[in-house]
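Service request form, structural biology core

Requester: graduate student, group of Dr. S.
Request type: structure prediction, single chain
Budget code: on file
Notes: please return the result as structure tokens.

Sequence provided:
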Amino acid sequence: GQGVNYLPGTWHHFCLALAEVSEFLVIDRGGPGDDCDEVELDPAPVLDLPN
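Core staff response, request fulfilled:
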């Protein structure tokens, strides 16, 4: 397996795999305060990837 740890305030996309079946485990830290800012894009972007 592989782990990724981001510094506070670092923008990142959620984990995904292109053209593969995949499973991801996300562990959220505990404690007070904001931990994750989610932004909804409208309209949603569309990716057209070659096969």
